[in-house]
Amino acid sequence: MSDQIILTREGYQKLKQELEYLKTEGRAQSAERIRRARAQGDLSENFEYHEAKRAQAMLEGRIRELQRILEIAQVVEHLPGEEDGAVIIGSVVTVQDLEHGEEWTFRVVDTASAAVFGSDEEVEHVSAASPIGQAVVGKKVGDIVQVQTPDGTVDYEILAVHT
Questions:
Q1: DSSP assignment string, the chain
Q2: Which CATH class is domain 5-76?
Q3: What tens digit of pLDDT does each residue of 72-127 get?
Q4: Model pTM?
Q5: Could you tell me where in the chain the CATH 3.10.50.30 domains are found?
Q6: Which CATH fold topology does 82-162 show?
């Protein structure tokens, strides 16, 4: 994980809410699941018990991850470029692949939000730390950006930016 994580106020609050949920309800549900599985007897061959313990370990790992993110996160209220129409975290961007003519609309989100919240019903979410995210942040309508993909370099023209 990078030593600097930039979050919007909304992204920070969502992660904080997830952490609180996991520490309270998530842990309580995990403990109850382990208790029920343990009551079934012999633990050495008890699949439900081992699965409950694995799920508990994953829960605790996510709690530690969220705590670390929230400790080091830099919360930004106003992002550079916000006033001049440039792409910022939170912008909805439409780009066109210049070779194939295909258009793609996505929302640029902070790194943690991309991992946690995926996409909404309207548009796909793309992390600002991803290759396309890094290429478009700070750019404006009409700019052409190059993105390195597994299939080679793709040139995109920025068609629209909505903040």
A1: --S-EEEEHHHHHHHHHHHHHIIIIIHHHHHHHHHHHHTTS-STT-HHHHHHHHHHHHHHHHHHHHHHHHHHEEEESS-TTGGGT---TT-EEEEEETTT--EEEEEEE-HHHHHHH---SSSEEEETTSHHHHHHTT--TT-EEEEEETTEEEEEEEEEEE-
A2: mainly alpha
A3: 887 876 555 455 788 988 889 999 999 999 999 999 888 766 655 555 567 888 88
A4: 0.61
A5: 82-162
A6: Chitinase A; domain 3 (3.10.50)
